[in-house]
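pipeline stage [seq->struct] | target=histidine kinase | organism=Skermanella aerolata | residues=387
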Amino acid sequence: MTDDTDTFDRERWVRRQSALAEFGRQALMVDDLDALLHEAVVLAAQGLDIDRAKVMEALPGGDKLLMRAGTGWKPGLVGNLVVDAGSRSSGGFTLYTGKPVIAEDIEHEKRFDVPDFLREHGIKSLINVIIQGKGEPFGVLEVDSTKQRSFNQEDVDFLQSYANVLAAAIDRNKTNDALTKLADERAILLRELQHRVKNNLQIITSLLNMQIRRVGSGEVESQLRIIGSRVETLRVVHDNLFQAENIDQIPLPRYLSSLCESLLAFHGVRAEEVTLKFSADDAMAGVDTTVPLGLLINEFFVNSIQHAFPKGQGEIDVRLTREGADRARLVLTDDGPGFDRTAVKGKGTGLQIMDVLALQLGGKLTWDGELWKKNEGAQVVLELPVI
């Protein structure tokens, strides 16, 4: 008889530990707290061979308990039933003292008042333990039996193990919620900052335009336009950042199209003067790519507008072609007289800036010298990383 009992106890212990280990694994992976609480009460009831269990959550103020999860109860109780958590409540006692409660015969229980819903369900015995995480306790985990039965220390330890895993999962859930809230708040702040930066850049652009009109033509006007177009590029970048849901995934077709049109407008170039041809495959890039990419395109536009179209007529072609999963090829072309890139090496701030920006992008910048030889314009090709 003793051998059979020992075998049964070992099998029960192994079964309980296996179930607890599986629950612990789920607790690390599942973000749905209600689903996890439900799984806990089901497994706790099964582990003690009882068909009813519940998690009673302490409500703000600590004087009430809500049935947050349960199994074996009448429909409508879970999520709605609220009971007192005072000193005459078994759940309240556990909540305040941290000690488990074992009531093997609630009909003759003198320490605590028995809630009506337990009597209505024919509960004879119960055991509960605290769910204590960091800070205030979450509530209590309780198993209720319709048959009078005894509970031992092994039962208490088993139930407390579930409660401890639950407490850790609840703390993790609260931390995740807090981090999500913080991330949302920072995202809102970032968008507000982006909006302000965009507006400030717009103001700077307007001020530069006023200065350009005052100084008229000449070297000063030319330099102001170069500075202004760079500021305008940054404004377009921030405008697209403000519209993007994720600053690490800015759609390049929309961004490049708006940038090209804005640069032409900034320089006062009308559509009948310079034709813009644009095409772009679907691709995205983060802010670390879009800023230097935009500045590089700006330098090409400035060079073309200032030097490629002496008669005020011409064409600029911008093409972005995806090449593989994470690379793209940008080709910028104008149909002006072109120039010998080798002859101006080391000269021309704009060309030097383009070389530096290409290096910053981790790409390769090449110039088509054949077009210049044929007097057919300038072309720059950039290989760059995309998403």
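stage status: PASS
auto-comment: The mean pLDDT is 84. The longest helix spans residues 153-215.
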